[in-house]
Amino acid sequence: MISNTIEDIKGFLSDNSIKPSIQRVKIYQFLLNNKIHPTADEIYNRLNAELITLSKTTVYNTLHLFVDKGVVQPIHIEGNEVRYDADFSQHAHFKCNGCGMVYDLHLNLNIQNISELKNFEVKDIQVLMSGLCDRCSNINPIH
Amino acid sequence: MISNTIEDIKGFLSDNSIKPSIQRVKIYQFLLNNKIHPTADEIYNRLNAELITLSKTTVYNTLHLFVDKGVVQPIHIEGNEVRYDADFSQHAHFKCNGCGMVYDLHLNLNIQNISELKNFEVKDIQVLMSGLCDRCSNINPIH
DNA sequence: GTATCTGCAAAACATTTGCAATTCT
DNA sequence: AGAATTGCAAATGTTTTGCAGATAC
After folding, report:
1. Residue-wise pLDDT tens for chain A (143 aa)?
2. Which residues are B95's β-sheet partners?
3. Whose CA, among A69, A117, B26, B113, lies 20 to 30 Å from A50?
4. What are the residue boundaries of the structural domains of chain A, listed by start?
């Protein structure tokens, strides 16, 4: 767990063989500070005010680099867009069909009896739940 | 579990308040017979030989209707495309990073101790694993 | 005959690519 | 200067939309 200061992020990126340009540091810092699983477009729009010459190409380049270097995970909740997450702790995502929010849920996952898996090398498990969050199920109870 | 005969599919679609046009029946039958989580494009290309006037718009319209009526699930493995699955039995998907295949894995999933979930209404859980399948991990062992 | 369904063409949207300008050392 | 990075503009690929023609009851 690294802090979100510029200096710490620079060190973290360097440790992962990523040269810490201002764009890269700011994009990584945005992911640390805003755990909302943003799309490339959301990152671009939010950082564009500060980095006024930022281009979407650079956001895409940077996110691809981060994924290649293993410091960010791409997540696929809706089909036509990729979201990004810098949190590698074991957690599931819960998409509320009411308000659209994506929650992080810290869970213990037990996967049992998958005989089919015996010779498979599992590198990553992603769990996506959907339904109604507490707020939306109170507003609009389905009983 | 319905059979993949035209008559059974017609009945099944009607039971779910979907008027069974030839296009809809053939698309649903394709999903039953080809459990490969196809994209709209793959469905279009495979059915176009038989239904020579089929359009991609109709494939999209039909898949959206199927999802709305709850007879087909959209799955999101890669970010730039939606795949479709008519199998509602509890299973996970395993994407092999070697050959690209998506396997169905029939698993028992235990989700424990999610205190954050107490007032959430979970309607759906999707599990996506990735790594190397048995064939690819033998070809290219990482030890 | 009216409502629904289908399908063409164009538009919209996310992402990628080619390449030139910029930056860093 | 040389190598890496950034960013503009155009292209690509998937999905959506508007609307006209076809189909079904």
Report:
1. 788 899 999 999 999 999 999 999 999 999 999 999 999 999 999 999 999 999 999 999 999 999 999 999 999 998 889 999 999 998 999 999 888 889 999 877 666 656 667 788 888 899 999 999 988 887 765 54
2. B102, B130
3. A69
4. 6-85, 92-139
Asked if A115 CB < 7 A from strand C, the reply is no
A131: part of which helix (H) or strand (E)?
strand A121-132
Please give the model's pTM, rounded to 2 decimal places.
0.90
Cβ contacts of B109 within 8 Å, gap of 6 or more:
A109, A110, A111, B90, B92, B125, B127
Answer yes or no: is A75 CB < 7 A from strand C.
no
Measured CA to CA, the distance from residue A117 to residue A133 in angstroms comes to 33
Measured between beta carbons, which residues in chain B are less than 8 angstroms from residue A92? Answer: 111, 114
Question: In CATH, what class is A6-85?
Answer: mainly alpha
- Tell me the nearest-neighbour CA distance from B8 into chain A, angstroms: 30
User: Which positions in chain A have a beta carbon within 8 angstroms of at least one beta carbon in chain B?
Assistant: 74, 76-82, 92, 94, 97, 103, 105-114, 116-134, 137-138, 142
Domains B6-85 and B92-139 in one fold:
no
